[in-house]
Amino acid sequence: MFHRKSSLNIHLRLTAVAVVAALAGCSSNPSSGDGSGVETAAPAPAAPPQSAVQSAAPEYSGPVVERVSQPTPIASNAPNQYVVQVGDTLWDIANTFLKDPWFWPEIWHINPDIENPHLIYPGDVLGLVYIDGQPRVTPVVASTYRMSPQARVTPITQAVTSIPYESVSAFLASGAVLEKGQADRMPYMIQARGDHLMASAGNEIYVRGLDNAPLGSRYNVVEVGDALIDPDDNKLIGYRGKFVGEGTLRRVGDPGTLALTSTSEEVIPGDKLLPETVDIPLNFYPRAPSTNIEGRIISVHGGVTQIGQYQAVVLNRGANHGVSTGDILTVYQTGETISDRFGGGKVRLPDEPAGTLMVFKVYDRISLGLIMEATQAIHVLDTVRNPI
User: Fold this and answer.
1) pTM for this structure?
2) Which of 29, 119, 185, 366 has the greatest number of beta carbons closer than 10 A?
3) CB contact at 8 A, 384 and 329
4) In the chain, what are the domains?
5) Distances from the Cα of 290 to the Cαs of 91, 102, 285, 386, in angstroms?
6) Mean pLDDT for each consecutive 10-residue tract of the chain (388 residues)?
């Protein structure tokens, strides 16, 4: 049996390229005119008749979009215009205009007269307009990112993303959670080169599963840890992963050779390999799930006991249950069971809303979510459900 011991260098290089959101969200909730980026005008009324609408915000003359089936909940302090700031994400832009951000797909209106109309860029002026009496948000002034010649060749990674990319990139590249099928298919270390049973920084290891990988590719080495068990049916659905090192592919073949450049623990046969650069498509809308979802938080990155904003969590629900990227779920703090000192017996208190998460990665039986808001302490085994 191989035993690990702490090593010296903990060095996790994460270079992540964010593929942007078709729409984007924001990391702060601008709501005032004191340098926050909101160009105010009177707050737009929530559900006014058309005559009142025209006095509060301009009627938009672009193409008519399909009506929504129910009134869109405009925030009471929604501005008529908002200038998108560097660092904004779609989540907070949606929060600026809406009471419930998951209605964003119903309020967003593409302006076909501007370049890259599906994307939102810093400097864009977003206007709250009305089409057939229905509120819509659309770019009314395009930023120089779109208009200048340089902008036309600027990577779309400068557009606004749905959630803070840095909050999820480390989680994925470190292999913090591995679905059962994913772990079985990953490249792995078969043996250390030379007379070593274990390897550390400066050693080379033989690996399988990288026979078609480019020479010089960078990989993180991940230890497969504790099993993730679905608390509802006690079935194995994945594993916790732990970053233990990184290296460069020196020889392509089966087996190939990986040179370890840094390690936090000894690397042993069976450890898995993940590409150091993890591309995460963030081109999704925040939205309510298309089907009824009820699940549990079964793990959290870092093993903390209380979960807060922008922490990544693992859910025991995935594509097989109807979960999709962009789904917004309400987190409910599990009600405590207490003794009734007056009537006798035990009483289970009701679950109470504790926060909101957005799903950013979906597997068959598990999914990964980012806590967007936390109004109370959130814990492993708390319940997630469709927003009300």
Assistant:
1) 0.69
2) 366
3) yes
4) 21-158 (no CATH), 170-280 (no CATH), 294-385 (2.40.10.410)
5) 19, 12, 13, 9
6) 44 34 39 41 36 33 40 86 88 90 85 75 89 88 57 51 76 77 91 92 97 94 92 93 94 96 95 82 81 94 80 94 95 94 94 94 92 93 94
